[in-house]
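Hi R.,

Here's the chain you asked about this morning:
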Amino acid sequence: QVQLVESGGGLVQAGGSLRLSCAASTLTSRYIMGWFRQAPGKEREFVAGIAWSGSSTGYADSVKGRFTISRDNTKNTMYLQMNNLKPEDTAIYYCATGPRLLIRDITSWGQGTQVTVSS
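And here is the predicted structure, written out as tokens:
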């Protein structure tokens, strides 16, 4: 099973930026990678996903134009650049991998990293 470790979370003011990283113990070209988040009292939700080649990406409507997902397969690492952060982006962010980026199809989750955006 793939081990995933996130880093880069923290406290930032609204309008600021953060870059999250997700280091994987190994990668397979069969699986895609992505980011999910869970705010207090809410369901875990999809944020962004990226295919093995990096040429195909997808975003939740709430983050389009502000977040950018990327990956470096030589380093087994995925990134999430978050710009123009808003208080509603406050959540625990999880990286994940699986054949599809549906919660029921995820095969490995990271431990999560807290992102807090103050107004």
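One quick note: DSSP finds no helices and eleven strands in the chain.

Cheers,
M.
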